[in-house]
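Objective 1b of the project was to move from sequence-level analysis to a structural picture of ligand recognition. The entry below was assembled by the postdoctoral researcher (A.K.) and checked by the PI before modelling. It contains the amino acid sequence of the target and the SMILES of the bound compound, glutathione.
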Amino acid sequence: MKLIIGNKSYSSWSLRPWLALSHAGIPFEERVIPLDQPTTGAEIAAVSGAGRVPVLVDGSLTVWDSLAICEYLAERFPEKALWPRDAAARAVARAVSAEMHSGFTALRSACPFKIRETIACAPSPEVQADVGRITAIWEDCRRRFGGGGPFLFGVFSIADAYYAPVVSRFRTYGISLGGAAAAWADAVWSLPAYERWRQGAAAESYSMARYGKP
Ligand SMILES: N[C@@H](CCC(=O)N[C@@H](CS)C(=O)NCC(=O)O)C(=O)O
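Corresponding predicted holo structure:
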């Protein structure tokens, strides 16, 4: 099984399935396609007509889009319980992951994922609204479903992987958290697999021109 990702410094969508695979201890080969390079488009097009990473290749099967990849992994490795086992918790985990996948455009465009950096920022009202909704989701999941551990649904699930890049964004842009949201963010940031991703990002030498030089 091979996961094709963008560079770890910038590719928040790649982090999600990478973290799910890595935290679950599922063996996989990793291939990094550096983003924003003259050859990036052709390299991604050679593996996926969608023209985006991440892409998962499992034998003759290619799966693209981070959420579809995570769903495939959950089906392929049921013993890893990548979604919560309880049906109600699983439904909410899917809903909050889908909300992340399709929403929070103000936060995503104003505060791009730059895991190696810290940047002063004055969040706009739209970004503040996204931050408010995201922290409400974290607090609600922790309160209703988090009894069995430190993660959104107790034990680690795809929902945690889905919001993991937001933890980095909040740290990069100095958006502070309190209470249950801060405790959950610390638990995710402290995951050994997330630490390995950060080490990989720190070892990268290239930078994306459109984001400026780190
Ligand atoms: N909805 C897609 C979004 C994937 C996406 O936008 N990936 C970015 C990198 S994080 C990409 O491939 N960009 C292509 C490029 O920069 O050339 C998913 O969930 O996988």
